[in-house]
User: What shape does this take?
Amino acid sequence: MSATAPARLKRAALAAALCTAAGLALTACGPLGALDGGTGEENTDSGPYADLSGPEVLNRGLKATRTAKSLRLELTMRTAADGPMKAYLAVNTKGDCAGTISVGDSGTTELIKTGDTVYTRFDEAMLRKEGEGRPKEETDAVVKMLLGKWVKDAAGGADAKDLVHFCDLDSYLDGFRANDNIARKAGESTVNDTPTLVLTETYRDEKYTAHVATKGAPYLLRVQVAGGAEPMSLTFSEFNRPVPAEKPAAKDIADID
Assistant: This one.
């Protein structure tokens, strides 16, 4: 395995995650935010947001979420190509981020982007997955060199291009635009101990569920897709809190040159 392995690892680990990031626009151009002139059901309840219809509540949640300067996201989904995927990331509008991404059985990638620099660290499963088909001694040498170490890249470099997009909060929130929708109120629930109003829509064989906070700012706290080819759950939390993106210690950064 050559010194270019980290770049290949990044592409392999993040390809599905990046597709998912783009897929967040489901709430804008799919059922939960479709420009189809849907009216939702008439509001007659006396619960949270009793004076608003389902579409109005969802629009309020979308607008509030787009004002966030930073947040933490937790994504779980199953993709047709890569199987299960999980991501835990804190991101902000400055492009800083910190967290982990796991795709299928390929292992886990840790990610930090601070300023103009990106750092990645791969667990042994990820390193050995990349070494499949190569001599064992070569893979063992790379594992010895990189395990527990961060790999540094310039954010503007070709190898870090995908990572930079992944750490851009605006790219997530661009999908959340308040438009006409056909959301229906479906009772109350909680997300991380915050009370929410549940809104649902169905489209073909998929059911979309959104949770809008009823305490504090009306943030969109969770979006779920059940059924279909790629079920997913995306949870937002820790709005407007500092992102723990700090440069690793020099002794922990690999010298792959």
